[in-house]
Amino acid sequence: MPSSAESRQQRPPQSRAGNGMLRTRAAAIDGARRVLAERGVRRTTMSEVAVRGGVAKATLYNHVRTKADLLALVVEDARERVVAAAGAALSRGDLAGALTAAAEQLAQDEVLVGLRRVEPTALLPLVAPGDGPEWQAVRVAVCGALERADRATDGAAVDLVLRWLLSFVLSSGTAADRSGGARRLALALPARPARTAFLTPGDPGR
């Protein structure tokens, strides 16, 4: 058996560069979320994001080249937060609970709350579904949630859920709006069609 020293030598070294990239990404997102919530999209600058995120401006530019790249990171992070919020209820098979949790996350998100106050027009592109990779990722996430809840995953069902969730980007509504709407939506979504096995002559059970 190899000694502990030999085992350590055989173990692949951790990538310091990779860890640094993750830290920079997290700092960039944190700084951007703070500035966006306070100043809006138009008045957000890369310099201020770097200061609020606690990273050097040059380091930030090494990770994200433009403000558009930075905003894409923030949107990706927001999507991950919504998926994480819904995850616990989905693991219990509670679609209404998952929809409620997702709506709560959107309603109370720091950036969205701030933009509703300081620059509501910046929210409009976020509620106009398109064909880009960001929207494709959103649709995949919704489809995965419906599949886990044993609901239909066709385009109509995915779009219905998307339209309902996106309404809380523009306006948080009330807790009753979110929970009641989630229950009604969960009831309206059809179950996933059962798969039919076609038997050929000679198959057992025919």
Fold and architecture overview:
With 206 residues, the protein is mainly α. The chain is 68% helix and 0% strand. The protein is built from ten helices and no strands. Helix 2 packs across helix 5, helix 5 packs parallel to helix 8 and helix 6 packs antiparallel against helix 10. The longest helix is centred in the middle third of the chain and has 25 residues. The termini are far apart. About 3% of the residues have low confidence.
What distance lies between the first and last C-alpha atoms, to the nearest angstrom?
57 Å
Order of helices and strands: HHHHHHHHHH
Strand percentage lies at under 5%
Helix/strand/pairing category? mainly alpha
Helix percentage range: 55-70%
Q: Which SSEs are present, and which pair or pack?
A:
Layout: H1 4-10, H2 16-39, H3 46-53, H4 57-63, H5 67-91, H6 95-108, H7 110-118, H8 133-148, H9 155-170, H10 175-188
Offer a quick outline of the entry.
The chain is mainly alpha-helical.
Which key terms come to mind for this protein?
single chain, 206 residues, mainly alpha, 0% strand
